[in-house]
Amino acid sequence: MTEKKTTAAQRDGTDWQPRIVAFLCNWCSYAGADLAGMSRNDYPAAIKIVRLPCSGRVDPMFVLKSFERGADMVLVSGCHPGDCHYSSGNYHARRKLPAFRELLGFMGIDPRRFKISWVSAAEGNKWSSLVADITEEAYALGPFQEFPKCTAPEKTG
Amino acid sequence: MIKLHIDGQEAEAEEGQTILDAAKGLGIEIPTLCHHRAIPPVGACRVCVVEIRDGGRPGLVPACAYPAQEGLVVETASEAVRESRSMTIQLLLARCPEAEVLRKLAEQWDAPPLTLDAPLDHVEPPKGVPEGAGDRDKCILCGLCVRVCQDIIGPAATAFAGRGIERKVTTPYKLLSDVCIGCGACALVCPTGAIDPAEFCSHSIEKIPNEFNLGFDTRTPIHLPFPQAVPNKPILDRENCIHFRTGGCGACETICPAGAIDLEMEDEIVEEEVGAIIVATGYELLDPSVYEEYGYGRYPDVVTSLEFERLVSASGPTNGELTRPSNGEPPKSIVFLQCIGSREETGPGKPYCSKICCMYTAKHAILYKHKVHDGQAFVFFMDVRAGGKNYEEFVRRVSKEKVATYLRGRVSKIFPHDGKLVVQGADTLSGGQVEIAADMVVLAAAVVPSKGATELAQKLRISYDQHGFLSEAHPKLRPVETNTAGIFLAGACHSAKDIPDSVAQASAAASKALGLVVHDRLTREPTIGIVNELTCNGCFECENVCAYGAISPKDIKDRSGATVAVLANINEGLCQGCGACMVTCRSKSIEVQGYTDNQLFSEINAITR
Ligand SMILES: Cc1cc2nc3c(=O)[nH]c(=O)nc-3n(C[C@H](O)[C@H](O)[C@H](O)COP(=O)(O)OP(=O)(O)OC[C@H]3O[C@@H](n4cnc5c(N)ncnc54)[C@H](O)[C@@H]3O)c2cc1C
Ligand code: FES
User: Fold this and answer.
1) What is the dihedral of CA A142, A143, A149, A150, to 10 degrees?
2) Which ligand sits nearest to residue B444's alpha carbon?
3) Which of A117, B60, B441, B470 is found 20 to 30 A from B339 (Cα to Cα)?
4) Which residues, given as ranges, of chain B have pLDDT below 50?
């Protein structure tokens, strides 16, 4: 399945690959991704993971920063509601992040580029299919160029 | 101390004790019928007679009622005693030929049944006398039931009525009794099993199903939870106890010789501080009534594997005699169905293999053969998965030695016919349909986590999988730890497993837990929050989001001791480092070490390069 998607992009005559930044909580989603790896599941390599203690640690600025730096899609994933390792971190995330998503359009970012999901430590398979699905969607949405274009180039040195 | 001699041995007794008590102290058994240690004795049945030889007035006396006196010389099995006891038993047995205890006593004390020279038809009970409370063929008129109801429980629901051969235990006017509270004490003390309060109590008496035997028999409100319970002490089930329901009875408090029962006692919440927790909440079986085709719940002879365990158990409802729940007959043919709800990708079942069923079904086949030698056993299986030390050999023995006939295939339907259960299934190895007329069907239902495991996991903040089994921290490297420090897993709460695997995991969990608590100091992750006091302005938004109450105000004082600011302070012992406070802080004055904003922005920069 994964391979088909890559070839679909190549068929379009580009070798563009989406860049997806994922913020995962350590206890559920990161462990779920780890389990996917341990179970030798395939999933697209377009995703890059930042490990956080909890989905409640996700500062909306991380999401904006990722888009500014050219991410085509951003994912936040934590424990299922009720299962947060810190009991309520994902409740904060569940209230804060959808509200934040509403504001993305105002900033010129297609809200479809921002995903929130809950993946438990046991859901290795769910993780692989989630990544396959959002990668597919990122291909469909195409590269995200508008936002990075209008930001200042990164200072070097 | 009173000193006396019983059967040539010196016995001791306290003031108020009887000869019976003193004999018991020496281990000398004197038979009794109308005696119960909680009820004042009356010496009515006279099977306990003993002979006083010296130290008192010589002759036969009832041991249960005769006080132990200094210098008494007593014989409990002398010629005179034997003769008297044997005759008493003979007479009682003539009245109550049905009473099992009397038959046993008759055998023990050499009391052959009385043969009558003339038939007894002239003593037929007069007409118009309805039956009393007691079963005439068993009631020896000892009056224990009457005394317990009057003297111990209180309502006095029964009494003696009639004279001579009409004498019987009954309720006033032989009507259904309103005062009977249905406590069952009369039935409990009755030596011959002659009385059943359900027959004369005006309100219905509910039977309490015995949970340990999965409802195949009943229990009393005070009961041992199960035979090997630790501690091996009875518990009182308040929901069913007459005292807690009606305020009456309370007999247990009076009866218990150790004074161990206190009905005033309240439940209390005990708080303990611990350094480690081991979760071992185990498993249950999937309720197979979701599969209509097997008829579980509709046909009494279709049972689960766990119910079968109770039915063959020596401590089970039938004392180990395997019988059909429908009619109490031994099952001459039995069919075991494996994988009920296991390895099922769709439907109400579970996708996983329950792992233990292949082995216990083979065991069940052997147990069945031990109980029903000429019986026939069949096993329907999908695959026999017997991985494990000596496991394959065990299953092979069961099929090779023709303990059971293994049929590879599934059963499509079970229906009752002619007192049997017809089991229709496929035998995919021979490629045919099979139909077996069985007396009993045993369903090896899928193993599922015990009820409440998910709620417990949420309370402990440990993870669980989509089936509710608790998750280990790492499937290969940390198989007994959970993601939460200090909490460990053991047994079937983690996945279906048999006893050797459960014991291995439990031993590992115990040593992991010990490894944690034997140290004087706790080593923990350094990733906790730190407040930057230079920028914190003391808004305490962070305090609101902290799930651990780790943030509290701290007074910042100048040299003169005057408070100049109140800022947030994080308790290092309580903080778990989730970072919620950090995100909430508007002045960015809290950082969780190891996950600082700077570190994370650098990481984002690096992966989006
Ligand atoms: C029909 C059958 C036959 C079997 N025969 C064999 C056999 O011959 N050999 C073998 O090796 N294995 C056998 N097994 C498997 C064996 O039963 C299990 O391996 C074993 O019981 C697992 O032990 P455990 O302590 O993990 O769980 P359990 O035995 O299920 O014990 C868990 C305990 O935790 C209690 N509990 C649950 N929730 C809570 C809570 N929230 N708070 C407090 N207490 C709680 C439960 O009441 C229970 O007492 C058989 C299983 C079945 C179904
Ligand atoms: S720890 Fe996973 S969401 Fe909080």
Assistant:
1) 50
2) 1
3) B470
4) 125-130
